[in-house]
Design goal:
about 45% helix; 8 helices; mainly alpha; binds zinc ion; about 240 residues
Length: about 240
C-alpha cells in the first residue's frame, strides 16, 4: 500500500523516462551541492531577507559565480512557527535578472507568450503574436494554417513538459528531504502549464535547468539579453565579497 507521503507526490503523467531521469539527477545534484555560508550571505543581501528553506544555488553568473537562482525545499520548517509549503522551488534572486524580467512583464510580453504557449495555443484561435519583435525565436511565426496549429500544439506540449519537469525535480527533493507536498500538489510556478503569469519564476526555472526545458523562460532570457545574460557579468553584488 502506498504511504501517505507517496500519495502526496505530484502527478507527472506525460514525462518520458529520460526526462524523469534528468529531473532526478538535477535534484540529487542540488542536494549534493548545498549552499555555502557566502552563498547564503549574498542571497540574503539580494533578497533583503534570509532565504528560508534554501537547499542550494541552482544557477550562477557564469563569470563571477554569484547566485542567480536558489533551490528551496518544498516544506520550510526552519525559523517559522508552522511548516510552510513552498511551491516555488526555483526562485530568481539576481537583482539584475529580476529587474530585466520586470521590464519584459511591463512591456506586455507575457500576453503574447501566453498566446503561444498557454492554453490559448490549443484553443482553436491560432496565435499570430511575436514574443519580442525581431529577437523572438523562429518558433514564433504568423500562424494561419493546419501546420501552424500543429506548432501551437507542440509549443503547448513543451510548456506542459516544463511544468511536469518542475514537479518531478520537486518530487525528488521532497522524497529525499521527507517534505510533505500535500498542500502544493500539482502546483508548479509562473502559471504553468496553462498560463504565463510570472516571468521571474519561468526564467528561474530556465536558468536552473539549462536551455531546452522551459521554453517560455528560454524565450524570456533571449528577450532580455541586452539587460541580463548569465554569460555576461553585470553583478553588483558578488559572492567573492562575502567569502573569507
Ligand atoms: Zn557576475
Amino acid at each position: 500500500m502506498p504511504t501517505k507521503d507517496e500519495l502526496a507526490m505530484n502527478d507527472v503523467p506525460h514525462l518520458s523516462e529520460d526526462d524523469l531521469q534528468i529531473c532526478r539527477s538535477r535534484a540529487q545534484q542540488l542536494l549534493a551541492e548545498r549552499a555555502s555560508q557566502a552563498d547564503i550571505a549574498v542571497v540574503t543581501e539580494q533578497l533583503g531577507r534570509y532565504p528560508r528553506g534554501i537547499i542550494s544555488v541552482a544557477a550562477r553568473c557564469q563569470q563571477c559565480g554569484t547566485p542567480l537562482v536558489v533551490a528551496t525545499r518544498p516544506l520550510i520548517t526552519e525559523r517559522v512557527k508552522h511548516p510552510t509549503p513552498f511551491p516555488t522551488t526555483f526562485y530568481l534572486t539576481s537583482p539584475e535578472a529580476v529587474k530585466a524580467a520586470s521590464h519584459l512583464e511591463s512591456a506586455g510580453v507575457m500576453v503574447e507568450l501566453q498566446e503561444l504557449y498557454g492554453e490559448e495555443a490549443i484553443a482553436g484561435e491560432t496565435a499570430a503574436a511575436q514574443a519580442c519583435g525581431a529577437a523572438a525565436s523562429d518558433a514564433v511565426e504568423t500562424a494561419d494554417s493546419g501546420e501552424a496549429q500543429g506548432d501551437n500544439l507542440e509549443r503547448h506540449r513543451q510548456y506542459v513538459r516544463a511544468h511536469e519537469m518542475y514537479l518531478a525535480v520537486r518530487n525528488e527533493l521532497a522524497r529525499e528531504l521527507g517534505d510533505s507536498q500535500e498542500h502544493i500538489l500539482n502546483i508548479s510556478a509562473g502559471g504553468m502549464p496553462t498560463r504565463v503569469k510570472c516571468l521571474h519564476a519561468l526564467v528561474g526555472h530556465a536558468l536552473a535547468m539549462g536551455p531546452g526545458v522551459n521554453p517560455v523562460g528560454d524565450e524570456a532570457l533571449r528577450c532580455m539579453k541586452h539587460e541580463f545574460d548569465p554569460a555576461v557579468c553585470r553583478c553588483t553584488l558578488k559572492v567573492a565579497d562575502f567569502e573569507r
